[in-house]
Amino acid sequence: MLATQLLFLSSLLPLLQAQETVLGVYIFHRHGDRTSKNFAPTTLTDLGYYQVHAAGDFYRNRYIDANATSKIFGISSDLVKNSQLSVEAPVDTVLQTSAAGFLQGLYPPVGVTLGTQKLANGTSVEAPLGGFQLIPVNAVASAASGANSENSQWLQGQSGCNNAIVSSNDYFFSQEYMTELNKTMDFYHSVLPVVNGTFSLAQDNFKNAYLIYDLVHVSQIHNSSIPSDNLLTPQTVFQLQTLADNHEYNLAFNSSEPIRAIAGSVLAAQIIQQLNVTITGKSKSQIGIQFGAYASFLSFFGLAQLPKVSDNFTGIVDYASSMTFELVTNATVTDTSYPSNDQISVRFLFSNGTASEHPLTPYPLFGQSETVLPWNTFVDQMNKFAIGNQADWCTKCGNSTGVCASATSTSTGASGSTTSSPSAGGISKAVAGVIGAMVTLAVILGVEALIMLLAGLRVVNKKRLSGRASPESASAVAKA
User: Which is nearest to 352 in space by CA: 374, 323, 381?
Assistant: First the structure.
């Protein structure tokens, strides 16, 4: 009998040893609900604040809390250690405040006990706001989404990448676009009474698919009344959304012109960089978080072949959506024993909407069947499209002025992948900063002209949806 029990217990030992450990994560997150894009600057709404805070609380319960379901190795559960986090967002009000709201859920106030510090003279001081924890959000121009993207009418213009801008613009001359433009003309004209306070008859068409949908979508969330709202049947709203999805995905990705997905390529490099820092530092910096615009999601989805899994990956992600990359291992992890690269894997997960309400679900990347990929395989696949060094960015974007003037002449041999190998330290933050400076310069010089050339539309504040807007009062609608 004893021998049988020992045999049974020994059979369980491999299962106990194979328990998965999360070494670190990278989270790319969209902002929460925001005000109408009819007038800049847009701002995060109370609903949006709630969404990102709830998402932060979800990720806390998954990765950080003492009783977390998938607790990250070595992470501080209550008092934040800022060295364990890297949080970034472009210089943009909606994205910066979304990141701040998310972090309040990730590391909430700790209360009087943990939030009190005793000084040398014997007195104690309590942290304000019940032990509110201060976590910096790095405002970086090298983020996957451009600076001020929430107030930009055309997100590709924020990339500063000449070839990407040309590629996206080519879509408007494609047979696919022209067919859709003509085919949907009557449909858009049928909803003109709803949007004619913002769009003229000439502007009410597929060219402005996202802007029209955005106006209706925001109004349905926040406006108590909408003109001719009887026209907005569930079928009509669904069609407006589907057409907007089609429009934006084609601007963000094209399989024959991967440069169009420059935002996804830059994001891929940043993901590899942060996860590589986690590995080489043996989980000293475990969490990377970046807030960005929906176009970066779409670009990455296309590059990572996620539409092969589901057509849903060709649609605009909902507010507060997130995609997560988990570094996991089944090897033993202690303060003195850390797994080698070939013992580490990556799992990709996505939540369409705030993760507290919509399941964070694993999906296979790169056309493969497994949802967990070996680290080395993941790096090799990501490096097929990641762009993370200055010279490579300049060459593929066709930029030769500004910072690229020196980069293209001194960068022989610097091309291809973002990180040299899984054992290397990844791309440097200095390199990413140079790219950011270049992108910012290009945006300042070019985005205004691009907007005027490509948009050709005017809009008004959501509160004036039922009224006519004069040309003098119209303002550009941002997309993100």
Answer: 323
